[in-house]
Amino acid sequence: MSYQQHDLPSHTCLHGQGHSKYSADTTGERQPLHESQNTHRWKMMGADYGFLGVRGDIHSTVVCDVEMTAPTSASEPSGEVSDSPFSDRSPTVPLRYYQNAHFFSVLKHRTKVYFQEWAPLFPVLHEPTFRKLLDDSICGPGIDCPYDKLAQIYLVIDIAGLSSNATDPEQFPTATQTWRDALSSSFPHKSIHALQTLTLATLCCIVRAERDGAIHYRNRAICLSNILALHRDCPHNLDEPCSTLTLEMKKRVFWTLYTLDCFCAATFSLPTMLKTTNITTNYPSDIDDEYITENGVSPRPYDPNTRMSRALALFKAARVLREVLGLTCIPFALLPTQDRQLTCPENRLNAWYGQLPYHLSLDAMVKQPAENITSSHPYLMSIVFYYINYHIFLRTVGLGQECIVDRAFESIRHSSGFIITLLECFDELGCSFCFCLNKNRLLAFCNDVQSSSSRTLDFTA
Predict the structure, then answer these.
(1) Which 3-state string (H, E, C) describes 63-111?
(2) 3-state class of 270 per DSSP?
(3) Contact call for residues 322 and 262 (beta carbons, < 8 A)
(4) pTM for this prediction
(5) What is the top-level taxon of the source organism (predicted)?
């Protein structure tokens, strides 16, 4: 698989050659890789082996097939750490190699930005655990950082850098290249830590509107999630009973991946990969990181305004979006059936929006003076509402009678107008758009809706 590098700066080139059957030589021709090396190919039914996209049956089930040829003495010298996904170890690299004069201060700031702005909606990482990882990987003298942990650290740096509040944007000019190289150098082993890293990579690519990268890392993450059986209730290894922290993090990572799967499919006109009918696991508890430990849940004061409440609201919205994306456009002869199909998710969307907690309600937010507004999450929840509403009425545009199409298009125009207004509020308030959509792409499309008619608009943009 070759990524589209022409859209990216030279220092942020995507490194997908390690996952393709071909590599580019100096002449620009694609040459087959040596099959004598360890080759890990994650397959999907109906998909090309070299590309983890959706080229076959859109309703196919993701499966994982790891093919490993026996290493030769030339390809893997004695004593070298295997990069098998089922290895308990990963190749290591001194993290100090990537440091510069201001590394620690900027890394501290980026970590703070990430957990303040991104983690409340995408609780992939447990903050105390991640900070311990930083201490062990960076502060410890003479300690090398495994490639998968290196990728996770630089993904946090990269994602936080997408926020407007992240200072020194040139401090880590090769952050993207570093985590991609780290993921390419060692295929993640079968662990929740590896899934966290792949989920973060998926989020980063979606926010940047990198279609190929988003598909690639999403499918790898879902494949690993299926291996770990995170979609089942209380998945665990009987030989290794899971702690409270591990069980909660499995739920958090799974539902974050489920959310990214839905928004990735909606953004790039793809089918979703996770089937709701196969999911039996519950939502994670509404408890913030500092109160969850390996030994259980620590006593905490009652506070409905938790950080996890943001993620839980988004998880529930993603289930409505998944239901909408599962609908197919029905010909005019079956239009009454189509209307009934659309009514159900529309009612669920309205119910979700009406049941949002007070601190996530935009109606409560607009009553406050601008100087008292400290969170952008009510605006984000409203954008989610109108974004899903747009997809609901999109199912009737282009089909049925002209009056029905025009009415649906007016609803789409109405939703896009509100999204534009809400996005302008982010600029006025100086808030970052920390969400799994590309802001510029979303704004450009909504502007196209406002200036187009139902007969001229390209709804696949």
Answers:
(1) CCCCCCCCCCCCCCCCCCCCCCCCCCCCCEEEHHHHCCCCHHHHHHHHH
(2) coil
(3) yes
(4) 0.76
(5) Eukaryota
pLDDT digits (tens, 9 = 90+) for 93-130: 445 444 555 677 778 889 999 999 999 999 999 999 99
Of 326, 264, 272, 268, the residue nearest 461 (C-alpha): 268
Residue holding tokens 């089922």? 86
pLDDT given at position 372: 61
Map out the domains of the chain as residue ranges.
Answer: 55-64+83-297, 327-451
- The answer to whether 387 touches 419, Cβ cutoff 8 Å, is yes
36, 76 contact by CB (below 8 A): no
Span between the terminal Cα atoms of the chain, in Å: 23
Q: What does the chain come to in residues?
A: 461
d(CA 164, CA 408): 35
pLDDT per position as a tens digit, 284-319: 999 999 999 888 888 888 888 899 999 999 999 999
Residue 39 has pLDDT above 60, yes or no: no
Identify which has the larger pLDDT, 301 or 86. Answer: 301
Say if residue 122 is exposed, middle or buried (CB neighbours under 10 Å; 0-12, 13-18, 19+). buried
